[in-house]
Amino acid sequence: MKHRVVGTGVVAFALLSGGGLFALAQQPTSDAQAPTKSPAEEADETPIKLADVPEAVRAAIAKLAPAGRVKQVVKEEQDGAIAYEVEYTTKRGEHTATISPGGHVMQVEGLVEESAIPAEALAALKKAHPAAVFKNHTTVKEFYYEVDVVENGTSSEVKFDAMGREKDAEPAEEAQKHTNPAPAR
Hints:
By secondary structure, the protein is of the alpha+beta class. Helix content is 18%, strand content 37%.
């Protein structure tokens, strides 16, 4: 099957979750290459020894990565806040996780086979990018929180990560439509 490339070369699907860790259940593709970072992204990153990260971060890493399977830990600044990115391997392949200084896993990425992508999503990608070649199929699982906020009589749903950074907001009426559709008549 002909592969296709999309924008950055990575097809990523974010799954909404209120917490917990997920095991990545697919094998990496045989021609997979790690996504490259821009010089600006790398400028805010500092490699760090596992022994030098906060205890809470080491505990989170221990839950994700088998002993001795951590390849690299990087201390990075994201939107003015410090986070730790850990690269590790499991029997399922290579993964990257982003962890807050408090030890909360905010994101887990791992390469997957194209067959792991839902058929509907893959069809939409192929329709939107008919002349492209797809490579480095990646599953991305983000962990954040949602809170309904009423402020000055206006209701909205606020999403934020473990470091307190707001993800996005939508009016509560719109959020309600997504979670509780109107009953059929």
